[in-house]
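Try it yourself: sequence plus zinc ion, in.
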Amino acid sequence: MIISQLSISGCSTNISQVYIPENEIYFDLKGKKRFFKIADNGTMNFYTYEDNVSNCEICGRLLDKMGIICNECGTISHNKKVFFSHGFYCKNCGKSLCRLCTSYYTKFLFFKMPLCKDCAKISMKDGKVVKKFKPIRK
Ligand SMILES: [Zn+2]
Ligand SMILES: [Zn+2]
Ligand SMILES: [Zn+2]
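Structure, out:
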């Protein structure tokens, strides 16, 4: 890969081209193919120019803080939020989940208790009304 570097010093502008070796790293994360494409300049600093791990796959936006990985389907999503969360933690077993894999039951009228697939089954047997979250509009 050739990167054009633009340096501005004083009044003169200087564009120089540097050759930087590319590295592609592929790995499997909970059944999903993930990759990083990095430009490596031989030091500890490298530049990621393409990957599929830094965006939330529920809303498509960049992860602001640490994202979470769904234990059911491997989707990467934003962490838990108070409203319209994209990621959840199962109330019973603590598994991290994406919005699409989360079921919930309602406690005290409006508290939504997130559940993973297995815990949802158990809760349904216990007579709880278990629902699914609606997908978020992108
Ligand atoms: Zn999101
Ligand atoms: Zn999921
Ligand atoms: Zn669970």
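One thing you can check immediately is this: The helical segments are 117-125.
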